[in-house]
Amino acid sequence: MSPRRAAVTLALAVLAAIVPSAPGQADPLSDLLFGLQFVPLDRQPAPGFTLAGLDGKPVSVDQLKGRVVLLY
User: Fold this and answer.
1) pTM for the predicted model, two decimal places
2) Does pLDDT of 35 surpass 60?
């Protein structure tokens, strides 16, 4: 699965979790994100590290500069 497809799949999963609970509620987006434990942090450079990608190849955080990254 390509990184773009994985990101779209994740976004759809998050929306699917939010939408059923949204009708009749006036919670701001930040409250919804906090309820899901997605809390935006102040913009700071990430420490340097390398992990294995889905294809098994190493991916460095330096390669992802300028992109939104979600770690789980």
Assistant:
1) 0.37
2) yes
